[in-house]
């Protein structure tokens, strides 16, 4: 009788201690915790570059990257690159996700549209993104159109897929109840189906935004005279590794900022629509 | 109180567009579901006339076609042969003269209780009149304090009352209730039965209700219709049509109550001695 009692006691007294360590760390604010790793990396970076463990031509010091940023800012180039890239991303994202929403709604709601379109859209999606670049450049030259079009392609599919799938899985009982009250067509869509898929729309938008940045860099790497992707190739050609690293960090920062904004909207939408 | 009284009078401003209670007629209604492999007759030759303003409860074994019969009135389903009509209107497609409350509340989770009830308002209801009607219904169903809450913030019984209020907001000529209290606990269920009777007193529409519960049927119904099989043919049809005249509230120890109960249970294949 007493032996099992003891063992449960021991387990009982060990458990809170184990959880305690994690709990203590978790008590700190989340933003502080998220900064630990970046700051540590920065420290290591500083250490290995200043002590010469890593040669400066393969990795410049953090200071050199900041200096590169200052130099580019002064000439006004950095602002131009960032501005044009952001413009392309936002434009392509807006048009692509709007098209994704429209076609997603069509395919998700209409069996006819599903039968007519699904195969073709699926096949288009199977084409690797970079395969479009030569064709787009040939058709639309090197101008803005070819780049924005590629981003539109990138943003379209995540929204299309999530929206069409979500619409097909809207609670059939809710739809039936609304139909029993005489709702049909666009009114049914507006009252029941669209609100029901709002959270899915936002997760589709979030994926689409990530894709938009991805396709932006692809477009700019392969043919541009401005933009962050161009800055990457340009720095590579000139051996400016400090600018290369600067651009990568900038892409991370802007990608994260836009993602954080949209995830804020997503959280609001989930609260509002479920 | 004032609100509830206004609701009781069918000719106030709010009720100006009220459709009056309608009779329901089933003429030789059959329903056969066909799949590629087989076809199954669920309802066969249902002939039934329900008078305007009556409370009719439909009983029958699980799967015998009670919901199918109700859906043929709302227009969510159409009979394979035969004609269903409400008043002078022959049902063809969604029947806007009736309103449905289902076994589940089926509320839109992103809308408040008030907005969910508003969903039931007849199209073209004038905004002021609609708002007044909703306030009355909130009062009548005891939901005024919960009007701005979301469905996930209220209990199952409250949700079912919202569903009932939504159906009433349509001011239907026929109110269709498909096991509306089936998922509720016994106490809430009794309260809901009382509520339904008081609603029917203030708004005497025709009520067609499905239930599994014989006692519930005996409590509420002016008439009990039992669907069941006969030996000779597939599909369920009307096997009993029982008029109940006793006034409400009904005593469960009254002689005819007990007799009816035993009779119905036997029809449904249950030995009354055990229950
Ligand atoms: N859309 C449909 N397609 C094929 N069969 C159906 C369909 N709807 C109902 N049925 C069949 O019709 C029969 C009657 O169904 P119904 O839902 O009307 O029964 P019910 O009497 O309401 O049962 P319960 O008391 O369990 O709710 C069932 O056997 C069911 O399988
Ligand atoms: Mg049923």
From TrEMBL, chain A:
PROSITE patterns: ABC_TM1 (PS50928). Keywords: Cell membrane, Membrane, Transmembrane, Transmembrane helix, Transport. GO terms for cellular component: plasma membrane. CDD domains: TM_PBP2 (cd06261). It is found in: Cell membrane. Pfam families: BPD_transp_1. It is a multi-pass membrane protein. The chain crosses the membrane at residues 31-48, 89-109, 116-142, 148-167, 213-232, 244-265. Residues 78-262 form the ABC transmembrane type-1 domain. InterPro entries: MetI-like (IPR000515), MetI-like_sf (IPR035906). Its main location: membrane. One of its GO terms (biological process) is cellular response to sulfur starvation. Belongs to the binding-protein-dependent transport system permease family. PANTHER family: ABC TRANSPORTER PERMEASE PROTEIN, ALKANE SULFONATE ABC TRANSPORTER-RELATED, MEMBRANE SUBUNIT. This is ABC transporter permease. It comes from Glutamicibacter uratoxydans (Arthrobacter uratoxydans).
